[in-house]
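User: Sequence in, structure out. Go.
Assistant: Echoing your sequence, followed by the C-alpha cells.
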Amino acid sequence: SNSTLLADAAMGVAGSLPCCGARGSPSQLPPVLSSSPPSSGPSCSCSNFKETGSCRHLPPSLGGTVRPAAPVANESEEEEVKRTVVVDQKKIAWYMREGKALDGGKEIQGRCGIFLDVDGVLHPLGTHGKELFCKLPLLARIVEATGASIILSSSWRLDGEGIQEINDRFREAGLREILDVTPRPRAPLNDIGNRDVDIRNWQNAHLEHVAWRRQWVTLDDLDLSKSLGLANTVTTDPDNGLTDAKVEEAIQKLKDLEKL
C-alpha cells in the first residue's frame, strides 16, 4: 500500500543517518507518513530525540526539527558609525610637500623614530568597523616607553583623509600627531611596493636634521629586514597585527640602537 511504501522510505532515510535507526511503534511516524499502522518508524539515538521525539538529525519530513539558521549580525553591532573626517587641508598639503624642512625641535621630533604601517599592524588585515585600530593601545605603549615620533609609511599616507584619520585616532588615544609621511612611491616598483625605498628616501632628506638619527625602527607586516637591516625592523603577522611580543621587540631594539 502507499502508506507502507512511505514508511519504508522513511526508515531508509533515517537508517542512513549515523546516529539514527528504525525503532519503536508506528505512532512515532509523523501523521503525514502514517495513515495505517506500519511496523516501525524513524528514530534517533540522541538525547534530544529521547526527550522530545524530535531532533535536528532527522529531516523535517520525518519529524525532525529545522536546524536553526546562524544569527544575522546586526550591522549596528558590527560596524562603527561612519566617522566624520574633517581634513585639515593646510596641514595635509604640508605633509605631502617634498623637500620641506621638518617643524619643531626634539620635543616634537621625539627621542627616536618609528616608520609605521597601518593595515596588518594597528589592526589585522581585512579588519573593518569597530575593530579598526584595535591595536593602537599597543603602539601607545611603545611610544610611552621610548618617546618615539611617528613617520607614516603606510599606504594610508597617499590620501588626505587617510592621514587625517590617523591623526584623529592618535589624538583620541593621547598620542602626538604623526611627525611626517614618507614620499609617494615612484615607478619602477619592487616586490614590496618600494616601501623600503620610500623610507630610505625620507631618511636621506631628513635623518641628519632629526635628533635621533640612527635610532629608528619600522613597524610593518612586510619584511623589510633585507634592505633596512634586522636591527631596525619589526615585522608583524598580518593576521594578528601588533602583539605584546612585538611591542617588547620594538622597545628593546630602540633601546639597543640608542647605545650605538
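User: And one key feature?
Assistant: The longest strand covers residues 112-116.
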